[in-house]
Structures are given as C-alpha cells and as structure tokens.
Design goal:
This protein has one domain: Restriction endonuclease-like alpha-beta roll domain (Restriction endonuclease-like alpha-beta roll fold), CATH 3.10.640. The protein is 25% helix and 41% strand. It contains four helices and eleven strands; from the N terminus they run ββαβββαβαβαββββ. It has a six-stranded mixed beta sheet with strand order 3-4-5-6-7-11, with helices on both faces. A hairpin with a 4-residue loop joins strand 1 and strand 2. Helix 1 packs across helix 4. The longest helix is centred in the first third of the chain and has 14 residues. The protein starts with 5 loop residues before the first strand and ends with a strand.
Amino acid sequence: MALKATIYKAELSIADMDRNYYETHQLTLARHPSETDERMMVRLVAFAIHANEALTFTKGLFDVEEPDLWQKDLTGAIELSIEVGQPDEKVILKACGRSEHVYVYSYAATSHIWWKALANKVERCKNLTVVDLDAAATEQLGKMAQRTMQFQCTIQDGQIWLTDGTETVEITREVLKAER
C-alpha cells in the first residue's frame, strides 16, 4: 500500500519590498512521505520569493514530470518553473526547454559539490537561475514546520526573513548562475 502525503496548512503574509508585493496567501502543502520538513519549508520560501496569484505548488515528488512549483499563463504555457534541491542535468534541461524561466533552489551543505559537477552541463541554459540557500537557515526552517502554520515573510534588498511570531530565521542566498 502506498503511503499518502501529509497535508500542511500555512498562512503566509508576504512583504516583498524588492518587488512591491504585499499579500497574504492561504496555502496547502502536501508533504510527500520521502520529503523532509526542511525541503517542504524551502518550497514555501521559494513560493514567497516568487509569489503571485498564478504561482502554484504542483504534484512535485508524486509526478516526476512536474517541478515543485510553477506559474502558467492563460494558455497553459509554463512561464516559471521552480525546482528545489539538487536536481540532475536531465531535469534542469527539460525544464529549461519547457519554461520561459527556471529557478533551482539548492539548500544542502553539499550544494557546492553538486553545483561543481553540474555547472558546465547547464551553462548553455540562458533561462536558468540557480540559487543556493544557506544550509543552517534552512535547517532552522525545517524545525519550524507544523501541520498548521502562520508566517510573515519580509524580503528587502535580497535578504529574506521568515518568522512565525516566536522565532525568526534570516535566509541568505547566493546566486550560483543567473539567467542571461
């Protein structure tokens, strides 16, 4: 018998001063049995960074054909594809072929090893941005995961702060590859 996803509910209030985006989102996250709390929370941060009314969580780990998040236009074309973790070259190249913009958010302490092995293979992807999130910060985020969550996310000058009212985590990011 297959294991089912665990459902998490999050109210995410975003104040993104870099994009002048201020909104509160009621989100439902399905956590795959093989997914960690840390990875799920990185998906939530990726949502906050790119938030808008068309951005949605996908089947992700349940369907290898879909990224973790995407934004489609009214015709169904993929405008934005977001992968979390350390996807392989094939996944990235396929996403770059199908999407207008592709973002990969890596977050493990071993991200630099993964990127060193992959960088030359995806260098030709002009629509690809790869961002490494601070591993210590994302580990803290994983500890904040609860079945029902309320967060405030502030983004200013490229810095990200996520708080649940009790604890605040500053998430620094390093762009490993920028879209050209």
